[in-house]
Amino acid sequence: MIYIGVIYSIIAIMLIFIMVSLTNKECTSLKKVYLMMIACLFIWISADAVNFFISRTSMKLFIYKFKYIGVLPLPNLLMILAMKYCTKKKRIKPKLLKLTWIVPIISFVVIITNSYHNLFWKSLYVAELHNGISVMTEYGVAFWIFVAIAYVFLFISILILISCYFNLPKYYRGQTILIITAMIPVIVANVISIFEIINLEYDITALGLIPCTIIYRYILFDTIIPQVIPKSREIIIDSLKNIIFVIEKDGKIIDSNDMARKVFGKYEINIKFGKFEKVFEELLVKANATMHKKNDHVEIRVMIDDREYYFVKNESLIYDKGEVIGKVIFFNDISYMKITMNKLEIMAKQDMLTGLFNRLYFDEQVSKIGNLDIEDKLPIAIIKGDINSIKMINDVLGKKMGDKLIVKMAGIIKDIVPENSFVARVGGDEFGIILFNTKEELVIKMIKGIKKRCEDEGEGINNLSICLGYSIMENEDKSIDKHLEYADNCMYRKKMMESKSARSSIIDSLKIALEQSNYETKEHAERTRELASKLAKKIGIKENRLSDIEMLALLHDIGKLAVPDSILMKPEKLTDEEFEVIKTHSQKGYEIAVSSPNLINIAEGILHHHERWDGRGYPEGLKGEEIPIESRIITIVDSYDVMTNDRPYHNAMPKEKAIEELLRCKGSQFDPELVDLMIEMLEKQ
């Protein structure tokens, strides 16, 4: 019998290793129950192992009784493990589960008091057999009651596992089969030992528990699929942004996901178990949601945490063995798609710069007016407007400033016209306005109001000016398109009449802007104009060209308005990149000049006023007499005035020193003949 004792000892050590291997696992109720089962089995196996090595009668009997500390709780623990494995614990009330522990407790009390009543064992003694000394028993009624209850616990465990088997998807059933199969050796070993089907001199039930213990170890702590699958499905469903209701066959709501609870709150029990069709409208009211029924679907809109959500309804029937047992109602989250579509719709009809409607939507509205019965909307006023000299503003101060003025004009128009009017930006600097039930007197008043606001809010280079034309559709004799065409023509006629004064206003603003800038002064402009006029007369330029030269002297640096002050006013030496920016002012000035008939005569002079006699100037590298005479004059007189007056980057030099500098640059930077005439003129002053 010694070798059997060795085997039992090895098994006991193995159980210790199993317990140690669980130290790195998370401490859960499942782990606690399993460790209790291992501990009980360890007591049982260890007691049996010790009994194989000792021969003292009293000690053998004590150890034999002691092992029941481990034997009695095992059926109960096996049932609880089966419940936890199959997540069935919630179906049994906790109090009822605690009552099952009465069986091992009472059995233990009966065992320790057995000498008084012999209910558990009628007799318990040690006998010498041919293989050694063994404990012999004659079982009492309490023992058989315990065995019966233990078999009930085992039977319940198997039923729970079978139920789990049928509730799992087919590809997850293998583990359940393995556990059920592992419990068979326990039952077989116990039946053989208790009912003495085979003549054995020791109990082999504990050995039958070993494979069950090992399989539970692997399945419960390494691959707990029956727990992972339902839990993972629950997490996935609750993490969805879709609203999900589970409906029974009779139409009652029996479950929902987190999003449904978030939208509709924790609805009352009478709602939860009410029929979906009857209670859903009440849920919508509770959630302050709105529902829209369209041809092919139902859509709801709801605010959650100050954010707009949209859902569209779908449903799917639940089948079991070909029979409908319920359905799942989905409200799929289409918020992103809906909001994106709304944005696209807005973008399709909105001008992104001003926030007004765009040309495409304006044309759509005009087309609708032409195709509808509009008798109740007459008279209809069509107004067209065009901002004056916006190209010049863009060239001088850049497109950002031009855009700023367009936005400002859009704001003025929106403030003046009634709220129910239709206002659109129909071109770069053009606006279209449609007003219903509006008489001509009101249109004239609005146009005057817009022009007055422009005068009040415009200032200097930012001066606002707009030409406005209109047409009143009082009946349907002429189409809306004809009235739109008439409003266009009216606007352009006014523009032709007003453009000269508008451009003159812009030019005056340009002069003022130059005079008020940090890098140009009114005195410098006047001195340059006077010197340029005298030098021009000295070389015999005709009287009718003198005014152009004087204008060139005043505005030759107009392009510098588009150059940042940080570069123009920099006292240190400019970098190569900064000098390249400075050089663009000639081209910028030219573009401003050619955009205005009043300045076109001096455009070439502005473009070339930084060319050099030796061809090393900019922007085109002209040399000698290729350079316009006006540019050659301005180059000399401007350089002289700059040298003899203070600048941020140098102090003024004496007249004699400036003349020496003119002579030094004679034939390289300046026209040599003009230099001689200039010096002659200066010496006579």
From TrEMBL:
One Pfam family per UniProt: HD_5
Classification via InterPro entries: GGDEF_dom (IPR000160), HD/PDEase_dom (IPR003607), HD_domain (IPR006674), HD_GYP_dom (IPR037522), HisKA_7TM (IPR031621), Nucleotide_cyclase (IPR029787), Rev_trsase/Diguanyl_cyclase (IPR043128)
HD domain mapped to chain residues: 521-643
Stretches assigned to the HD-GYP domain: 499-685
Record key words, sorted: Membrane, Nucleotidyltransferase, Transferase, Transmembrane, Transmembrane helix
Membrane spanning stretches: 6-22, 34-54, 99-121, 141-165, 177-198
Domain of life: Bacteria
EC number(s) stated in the UniProt entry for this protein: 2.7.7.65
Domain GGDEF: 378-509
Record-linked SMART domains: GGDEF (SM00267), HDc (SM00471)
GO molecular function: diguanylate cyclase activity
Name recorded for this polypeptide: Diguanylate cyclase
Species classification: Bacteria, Bacillati, Bacillota, Clostridia, Eubacteriales
